[in-house]
Each structure stands twice: as structure tokens, then as C-alpha cells.
Design brief:
It is built from 14 helices and 12 strands. By secondary structure, it is an alpha/beta fold. Helix 9 links the parallel strand 5 and strand 6. Helix 1 runs parallel beside helix 3. Bound molecules: pyridoxal-5'-phosphate.
Length: 522
């Protein structure tokens, strides 16, 4: 059956087909993810793409037409996806987007504004500016001075934070003479993007200083203070508000005080600096807070206090595609320092921005990003903030927090499960351990065996298409743990209890199968 290629149908009709195909694909999937693992999914998707052993590329000379392509591929995508709207999809900081945000996102795709010049995005330029101002105020910054940009996520925001810190250190060194090399300090639980950003920016010599964490995954303040005291040069400290695994929040206020003390410390080979004109004493210390995960807690009256001290940061990363329920990407970078963004400003492009246009009142956000063409990802955020308000989003944050605390109680009540960290935000890290007396008694369980059991539990759930549970390594012996990252505000306590029961039951089955007992290990 072949259909003549069409240049395209009207959007109304295609959107209708898309919604129907989403529902049909979801029905075919029948759970949080497709059953059968990577081999089965690959075969199904290749078939939908028209790729087969005798036809190896999806790009054929003539197409199959919009109707067939949309229906077939949306169905295949939905059937083959992990669905964050399913209560048993709980592995990652991967949220079910709000319908209002998805609808707004469609408008962005249809209009395709680009933020690199006013004449590609007259409305979106103002929308981004106002979204940044609203979120800067939420973070506790003065919205008339603070600046920021919408980013692709925590990774880009962390890069921006370190970039501005490097600019500030250079400006400081230029004003007062060489003062040593900028060093990055981060905790052992910081996100991998911090080290990547440091490497990209050449801030890995001296190497990034890794500060150990305490038993709750938070940066050890005493060890940070000691490390800063041993480094008399410029420093950028990256604190984490919501570690990716445990959801722990570093002691922000105390870390800010340590950075402030470092700023006032007489730098290498130069007399104590006079306070800079911006009101900051000097720029040999910069605090970047990676609140990619935890920033959403600002919407909640109950949880906002967790982020006490955030307003003392020099820059902040915040992801609204996590606790914010936006379609990705919806990253936000904020800074209260109005000093300009020198590294981003170095380049000029007359076709995008001219001084006479700017003098005539045509603003440009070109110098707010390392990107050029830039989607209006601020728009779904703006629509969501307008639709739900702070209380509406706060209620969603609270629902996820409640769910995690409930999960914690369930884990504590089950002798086969043990939790690794107290719940701060919406994540619980735990592992299965066979009950004493059962096959492979607890006392005999080596770390190796526990690691294998927990990894096998997760893979079993994935292969069966039954649940998506996260996994990580933690503790002094880097033991394999499971985690539930609960971002689905519609999930119920009963959903979470049933999932934890399933994890423990599969653990029991696997522990029984591998015979148990110390002799069967490695
Ligand atoms: C998710 C996350 C990041 C990375 O953000 P992306 O949006 O995936 O680029 C950085 N830091 C933390 C703490 C995160 O949780």
C-alpha cells in the first residue's frame, strides 16, 4: 500500500492524528515502558522507520506522506517510550510535563521564534526577560538588577556559572595584578556537568577540588573551609541544592559565608583588595549553586526553607523540566551580579545586533547565551506560571515530597529494604537485602552479592516492562542502590507501596534462585 507523498496537511488535522496515535501507542505499550528490552524495541522502531535488512536507511527517495508518517511513527514512539506519566516510571529526574505546558510548547514549535535577535522574536524577547525576572525574584535576587537566560538545562547553566566566575576572576586579576589560578571546588555528590564545564573552560588546572560529603550526601563544610584556606587564589565553589541521587541540599548559607571569608582573605602576591565598585568586596570568590533539581522547592511554602542562603549565590542553575513539569528543555540560569557577561560579549554580528538599533530601543538577548538560534523555551514556563501560580506549583512539589516521605516509611517498615539517606525532596535511595533466615541470610550477604541482586532486580523490571526504577552507587563501598525519583504528582501512596512490594518480591525470587548462602558468591 503506498500513498503519494504530500507536501503536508494542515496542522489541525495532524495534531488530531498525533493525539490519537499517542493514545494508541500508549495502549499498545500497556505499562510504563515497552517489554522485551533493547532488542525488541530496536526491531519495532526500525520497522516503523521502514528500515529492514534489505533497506538500510530511513531516508528513501520518496516519502510516505504526512498522515502515514505521523500516525505510524507517533504510535511507535509512544509504544516504545518510557512514560513519566506512569506512576511506576520513577528512575530519573524525568517529569510528566503538564498539559498546559505541552500545549504552549506546540505554539512555540508552530511560530518558531528565535531569541538571538528582536526581529525574530519580538514577543518572546519580552517573555524571556519577564520569566527570568520572576524566577530571579523567586530565588531571592533583586529582579531589577539580576539577569539570566533560559538554557537547555543544568549542564548549560553550570557552564554559564563557571564561565561568569572565570570572567570575574580575570577582571579581578586585571585590576589588581596576578593572584593565582582560579580553582573550582565542588562536593563529591556534585553533578558530572560541573567537571565537564571546568574542563571545557580550562578550569581543571589546578584540578577541581572534590570536597567529601557527610552521611546525608551534603558537602562537608569543615573540609571546604580547610580546602579554601589552603588555596589563597581565586576560587569558585559549586554547591548543590538537590543532589541528583539523594536530593540533598548543601548548607548554602554556611558555604556562602565561607566563600565570603575567602573573598576577604588577602590574595597571593597582592595587598588586600579594596571593595569593588559593584558592592562585592572583590571577585576572588564566586558561589555557584546548582539547584537544577532542588530549585523547584522554591514554589513550596513548606520546602522553600531548605534553600535558605540561595540568595547569597553569585549564580544559580535551576531546571524546570524537573520540579517544574515542563517539557525539556527548560533550564534557567540566574545571576544577581549586573557586571556584564564579558566572554559572551566578545563576538559581534552586525546581522543580529547593531548599536543604532539598540539605541533606538530594539533589545537583543544575543549576549545572554552561548547559543545563536535559540528556541522560546521560556514560553511554556510563562504559560505555566500564569496558569498555576506559585501555590499551584507548590502543591505539586508538596505532593511529590509527600510521596517520597511515604515511600521512606514503607521502606523502613519492610525488613527486606533499607534506605541510604533521609528524604529531603522527592527521592528515596534504598536497597534490597534478603531477610535473615531466608535463602542467603542477611548476615551472609557480601557487598558483591547485594550489588548483583539489586542490579538484577532493576533489570528484571526493565525487561518485563513492569517498572522503571533508578540505580546508583553510594556509601564508602560504593554499593549498588535503587532509587525512586518521584516527580509524578498524580501517583498515589498505594502506587508507591505496590512498587516497593514488587521490588522486594523480585528480590526474594532472585535471592532464592541464586541459592543464597556465602558459598554461592563470586
Ligand atoms: C539534572 C541535573 C543537572 C543536569 O541538568 P540537565 O538539565 O540534564 O542538563 C545538573 N545538576 C543537577 C544537580 C541535576 O540534578
Amino acid at each position: 500500500m503506498s500513498e503519494a507523498p504530500q507536501p503536508g496537511r494542515g496542522l489541525n488535522e495532524l495534531v488530531g492524528l498525533t493525539l490519537a496515535a499517542l493514545a494508541e501507542g500508549r495502549r499498545r505499550r500497556g505499562g510504563p515502558l515497552p517489554a522485551g528490552g533493547p532488542v525488541r524495541v530496536r526491531a519495532a522502531i526500525q520497522a516503523a522507520l521502514g528500515v529492514s535488512p534489505d533497506r538500510t536507511s530511513l531516508l528513501t527517495r520518496t516519502g510516505i506522506g504526512s498522515t502515514a508518517a505521523i500516525t505510524g511513527l507517533v504510535e511507535a514512539l509512544a509504544a516504545g517510550s518510557v512514560d513519566p506519566a506512569d506512576p511506576w516510571c520513577a528512575a530519573h529526574l524525568h517529569c510528566p510535563p503538564l498539559p498546559v505546558a505541552v500545549a504552549a510548547d506546540l505554539a512555540v514549535s508552530a511560530l518558531n521564534p528565535s531569541l538571538d535577535s528582536w526581529d525574530q522574536a519580538p514577543a518572546a524577547t519580552t517573555i524571556e526577560t519577564e520569566v527570568v525576572a520572576a524566577l530571579a525574584a523567586l530565588a531571592g535576587f533583586d529582579p531589577t538588577r539580576a539577569t539570566g537566560t533560559i538554557t537547555t538545562g543544568g549542564t548549560e547553566s553550570n557552564l554559564m556559572g563557571l564561565l561568569l566566575a572565570r570572567d570575574a576572576a580575570h577582571a579581578d586579576a586585571a585590576g589588581t595584578g596576578p593572584s593565582g589560578r582560579l580553582r573550582v571546588f565542588r562536593s563529591a555528590a556534585a553533578h558530572l556537568s560541573v567537571d565537564r564545564a571546568a574542563a571545557v573552560l580550562g578550569l581543571d588546572d589546578p584540578p577541581v577540588a572534590v570536597i567529601p560529603t557527610d552521611g546525608q550526601d551534603r558537602m562537608r563544610l569543615d573540609l571546604l573551609r580547610r580546602a579554601l584556606a589552603e588555596h589563597p587564589g581565586p576560587a569558585v565553589v559549586v554547591a548543590t541544592a538537590g543532589t541528583t541521587d539523594a536530593g540533598a541540599v548543601d548548607p548554602l548559607r554556611e558555604i556562602a559565608a565561607a566563600v565570603e571569608e575567602h573573598r576577604r582573605r588577602p590574595p597571593l602576591r597582592r595587598p588586600p583588595a579594596a571593595p569593588a565598585a559593584t558592592g562585592h568586596p572583590a571577585s576572588s570568590g564566586w558561589l555557584h549553586v546548582d539547584a537544577a533539581y532542588g530549585g523547584g522547592a522554591l514554589f513550596s511554602d513548606r520546602l522553600a526553607a531548605c534553600l535558605d542562603g540561595l540568595a547569597l549565590a553569585d549564580s544559580v542553575s535551576l531546571d524546570l523540566h524537573k520540579l517544574g513539569w515542563q517539557p525539556a528543555p527548560a533550564g534557567v540560569f540566574l545571576t544577581p551580579r549586573p557586571d556584564g557577561w564579558p566572554s559572551v560579549r566578545v563576538a559581534h554580528a552586525d546581522y543580529l545586533r547593531s548599536e543604532d538599533d539598540e539605541a533606538a530601543g530594539f533589545p537583543s538577548l544575543l549576549d545572554r547565551s552561548l547559543r545563536t538560534t535559540r528556541r522560546a523555551d521560556s514560553f511554556p514556563i510563562a504559560v505555566t506560571l500564569r496558569a498555576l501560580g506559585r501555590a499551584g506549583l507548590g502543591a505539586l512539589v508538596d505532593a511529590c515530597h509527600d510521596l517520597a516521605r511515604h515511600a521512606e516509611r514503607t521502606v523502613q517498615a519492610d525488613p527486606r529494604l533499607e534506605s541510604a539517606f533521609p528524604v529531603t525532596l522527592s527521592t528515596i535511595v534504598f536497597r534490597y537485602r534478603p531477610r535473615a533466615g531466608a535463602a542467603g541470610s542477611a548476615a551472609e550477604c557480601t557487598t558483591d552479592r547485594l550489588n548483583r541482586l539489586n542490579a538484577d532486580i532493576r533489570r528484571t523490571l526493565l525487561l518485563d516492562g513492569r517498572a522503571v526504577v533508578g540505580r546508583t552507587r553510594t556509601g564508602p563501598d560504593r554499593a549498588v542502590h535503587l532509587k525512586l525519583t518521584l516527580l509524578n504528582h498524580d501517583a498515589t501512596h498505594a502506587d508507591v507501596d505496590a512498587l516497593l512490594r514488587l521490588v522486594a518480591e523480585i528480590g526474594d525470587e532472585l535471592a532464592g534462585e541464586d541459592g543464597g548462602g556465602i558459598g554461592s558468591v563470586s
